[in-house]
TrEMBL record:
CC annotations in GO: cytosol; nucleus
Annotated organism of origin: Mola mola
CDD domains, alphabetized: CTWD_Cns1
UniProt name for this protein: Cns1/TTC4 wheel domain-containing protein
Keywords: Repeat, TPR repeat
Signal peptide: none
Length: 395
């Protein structure tokens, strides 16, 4: 009976306590407005760690960090804690912070070579994911110096070699590691991939070399054909010296002429066209026609050396040009010239002449890979004015 009465008294006391609890607020409780922010300050429930840990705002986290980085602990324990911290950042793909942790761990100079090997290998992995292939390879090599058969270090190093396109080294690393790990699937896959890339690179190099030899051979044949025809290539024309009217200086001025220059056959035109030798052994030149009266031009990308000028003029002016408002540009009304800039002379060309005949003239120089010619309308006021004061010679 007594125990029953005591139970009732206890219950009455609890009821009184609960009634009082309901009327009073717990002073240290989270507020209704910022409970999520307060909750996130507890280390166990943090979603992300702060960039800098202030003991005033994060006392619990500062305490944990002090434990982790306690300088009184043995270097091995400190290095291991930093390794674990780096692994946590690595899992979050925060590779920069992971590298900082692994580096700090290595600076502890612990005597546990297993930990040092893992720190180097993990730092190599972080560098690899950041695209720092050389740094990753250096760390993998350093890890192998400690443990030559460390599988992860070999794999990471081989991956770096493949990314750096040094496939022979990747194969060498794989072959050395396969002696200790002959059945490792990842190692065998990397070895096969490196060998495949190596053979493909060697094949591409052979193709590039063969193409280079072919291009060089074609250019040599082209230059030989130009030389055989006596065509002169000129990159730039020096102005004629005052008082030098004699054309006997023509041969002496050949020092400025690049007859066998590969650059001399590269057209500077925006079309990119250049002289070429066809299967029949004929040269085709990119030719420029200039109409100074209207500041217009025509460009023929492949003018065969055996074709006459009149043939192209007939096609070019078969229809009225948009800028020829007076309709006076007809093949039979046109005068054709080339300019000798060095001698400041115009040479009139017979429209029935072939391109080769003109190119072989002793005063014709192919400038920048494209022969150019001036076209005027016979008897026009502009033609008369244009020719005043100019030296004119026939072919």
């Amino acid at each position: 009976m007594a125990s029953s009465e005591a139970q009732y008294e206890s219950d009455d006391g609890m009821d009184a306590f609960m009634d009082k609890f309901k009327t009073q607020r717990y002073k240290n409780a989270f507020s209704e407005n910022n409970w999520e922010e307060e909750f996130d300050k507890i280390p166990m429930f943090m979603k992300t760690a702060p960039e800098e840990i202030d003991p005033k705002t994060h006392p619990e986290l500062a305490c944990i960090q002090a434990i982790i980085h306690d300088e009184d602990r043995p270097p091995e324990e400190q290095a291991k804690s930093l390794k674990d911290e780096g692994n946590a950042f690595f899992k979050e793909k925060d590779y920069q912070k992971a590298i900082l942790c692994y580096t700090a761990g290595l600076k502890k100079n612990c005597r546990d070579q297993e930990i040092n090997t893992v720190l180097l290998t993990n730092r190599a992995a972080a560098h690899f994911h950041l695209g720092n292939m050389r740094s990753a390879l250096n760390d993998a090599a350093a890890a192998r110096k400690i443990k030559p058969d460390h599988l992860k270090a070999v794999i990471r190093g081989a991956q770096c070699f493949i990314e750096l396109r040094t496939f022979a080294e990747a194969i060498q690393w794989c072959d050395e590691a396969l002696k200790a790990h002959p059945t490792d699937k990842k190692l065998l896959e990397l070895r096969a991939a490196a060998d495949k890339h190596k053979r493909a690179a060697e094949r591409d190099a052979r193709k590039a070399k063969a193409k280079e030899r072919k291009v060089h051979s074609e250019k040599e044949a082209l230059l030989a054909a130009i030389k055989d025809r006596g065509v002169k290539l000129l990159e730039s024309v020096k102005p004629r010296q005052q008082g030098s009217d004699s054309e006997e200086e023509d041969e002496d001025s050949s020092a400025a002429i690049s007859q066998l220059s590969l650059d001399g056959i590269s057209s500077k035109e925006v079309t990119g066209a250049q002289v070429f030798l066809d299967e029949q052994g004929s040269l085709h030149w990119p030719v420029l026609f200039l109409y100074p009266e209207h500041q217009q031009s025509d460009f023929i990308s492949a003018f065969c050396e055996n074709t006459c000028f009149i043939d192209h003029l007939a096609v070019m002016f078969g229809e009225v040009a948009p800028w020829d408002t007076d309709r006076k540009y007809h093949p039979q009304n046109l005068l054709l010239y080339f300019e000798d800039e060095q001698m400041e002379t115009l040479y009139q060309i017979n429209s029935d002449a072939s391109l080769l005949k003109v190119l072989q003239h002793k005063r014709f120089f192919v400038k920048a890979g494209s022969p150019s010619f001036i076209i005027l309308v016979k008897g026009s006021p502009f033609c008369t004015q244009f020719l005043i004061g100019k030296k004119i010679h026939g072919l």
